[in-house]
């Protein structure tokens, strides 16, 4: 399965911070924001990843992440010229996807919790589409999913005034290869974007859209506003300082998944010793 991280967009809700740099390169406590979605794909069993960025930030992402070889992965890059919607990622990445299935994660989404890796790996070979449901207090701010006892989606609505459930759809999606063909057929919405909800609705019409629930033990945060960016940093800081474990470390994820050896991990860690990040990696069993 292939993976895509959509790290484009203009970041207008974080201006003036984003006037000079992509929000996905900003720190969430001790790591660049994009480390978190990449690590989520890695623990899903995905190591072939396309990173979609803005034209002005593309080289900075390449400087940060390289070709993925040091992590036993393959990172490729593409550009989204304008913020034309999440679903455009499948058009930009059609050659990268080829005949494979694909997972898409938004570059400002952070996931953490017990059992997350097992849940993601359980859904990384879909026949149709898989979205995730996360119980929230204010579902009208999100895409909302309603589903039956078997996890088959009954309806999916974007920011409904009267939500049918409290389950929001976070920014990670798993699809079979037909998502490319579907993305080619959908048309821009009233706000001029190719909407991921429209792709999900096509799968729903085919009775091929399923939901997997993220339970209470899993945290989902997005970092698209000043307050949510601060909250995410504070969340990561509290967990890391209390537990002594890191969230969103791409090097640890690659090592844990067996993509790199302990010797390779130590080679990565040595230049990072002064910050304490490398020291943490050196101590991993």
TrEMBL record:
Q: What class of enzyme is it?
A: transferase
Q: Any idea what this protein is called?
A: Glucose-1-phosphate thymidylyltransferase
Q: Provide the cofactor list for this protein.
A: Mg(2+)
Q: Which GO terms describe its molecular function?
A: glucose-1-phosphate thymidylyltransferase activity
Name the PANTHER family for this protein.
GLUCOSE-1-PHOSPHATE THYMIDYLYLTRANSFERASE, GLUCOSE-1-PHOSPHATE THYMIDYLYLTRANSFERASE 1
Gene3D superfamilies cross-referenced by the UniProt entry: Spore Coat Polysaccharide Biosynthesis Protein SpsA, Chain A
Where is the Nucleotidyl transferase domain positioned along the sequence? 2-236
Please give the function described in this protein's UniProt entry.
Catalyzes the formation of dTDP-glucose, from dTTP and glucose 1-phosphate, as well as its pyrophosphorolysis.
Reactions it catalyzes: dTTP + alpha-D-glucose 1-phosphate + H(+) = dTDP-alpha-D-glucose + diphosphate
Entries under InterPro entries matching the protein: G1P_thy_trans_s, NTP_transferase_dom, Nucleotide-diphossugar_trans
Against Pfam families, the record matches this protein to: NTP_transferase
Keyword vocabulary terms for this entry: Magnesium, Metal-binding, Nucleotidyltransferase, Transferase
Domain of life of the native organism: Bacteria
């Amino acid at each position: 399965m292939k993976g895509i991280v959509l790290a484009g967009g203009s970041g207008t809700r974080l201006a003036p911070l984003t006037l000079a740099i992509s929000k996905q390169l900003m720190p969430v406590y001790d790591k660049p924001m994009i480390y978190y979605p990449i690590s989520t794909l890695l623990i899903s069993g995905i190591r072939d990843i396309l990173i979609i960025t803005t034209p002005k930030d593309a080289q900075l992402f390449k400087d940060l992440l390289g070709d993925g070889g040091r992590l036993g992965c393959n990172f490729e890059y593409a550009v989204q010229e304008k913020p034309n919607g999440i679903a455009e990622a499948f058009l930009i990445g059609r050659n990268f996807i080829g005949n494979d299935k694909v997972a898409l994660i938004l570059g400002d989404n952070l996931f953490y919790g017990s059992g997350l890796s097992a849940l993601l790996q359980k859904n990384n070979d879909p026949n149709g589409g898989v979205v995730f449901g996360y119980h929230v207090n204010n579902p009208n701010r999100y895409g909302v999913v309603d589903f039956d006892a078997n996890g088959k989606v009954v309806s999916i609505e974007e920011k409904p005034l009267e939500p049918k459930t409290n389950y929001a759809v976070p920014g990670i999606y798993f699809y079979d290869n037909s998502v490319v063909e579907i993305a080619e057929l959908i048309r821009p919405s009233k706000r001029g974007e190719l909407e991921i909800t429209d792709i999900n609705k096509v799968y729903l019409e085919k009775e091929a859209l399923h939901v997997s629930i993220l339970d209470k033990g899993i945290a989902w945060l997005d970092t698209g506003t000043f307050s949510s960016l601060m909250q995410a940093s504070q969340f990561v800081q509290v967990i890391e300082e209390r537990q002594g474990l890191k969230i969103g470390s791409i090097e640890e994820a690659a090592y844990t998944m067996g993509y790199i050896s302990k010797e390779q991990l130590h080679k990565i860690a040595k230049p990072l010793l002064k910050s304490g990040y490398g020291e943490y990696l050196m101590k991993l069993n």
